[in-house]
Design goal:
Alpha-Beta Plaits; 3 helices; 34% helix; alpha+beta; 87 residues; two-stranded antiparallel sheet
Length: 87
């Protein structure tokens, strides 16, 4: 079973995850507030929402995805964070 969790304390309420999701899993009712997960069953595991979330507030469980993908994603986040600090 697919489980999508949004850390409401970490989430900044930006619309990025709602705009990047190809199957409209999320809905942003109020700008600045965390989006609602309205269709987790549609999620096919592209992890675009996880990748685009700068607050690292989205977690998806229930997909048999290789660990190497997550390691690459974490490396990308570290590099992106370092670049943001330099700019």
């Amino acid at each position: 079973m697919i489980e999508i969790t949004i850390d409401e304390e970490a989430c900044k309420g930006c619309p990025e995850c709602t705009s990047v999701c190809p199957v409209d899993v999320f809905r942003l009712d109020e700008p600045g507030k965390p989006p609602k997960t309205i269709a987790a069953e549609k999620c096919f595991g592209c992890f675009s929402c996880v990748d685009v979330c700068r607050a690292d507030a989205i977690e998806i469980k229930g997909f048999p995805v290789s660990t190497s993908y997550f390691l690459e994603l974490e490396d990308e986040r570290v590099i992106r964070d370092l670049l943001e600090k330099l700019i």
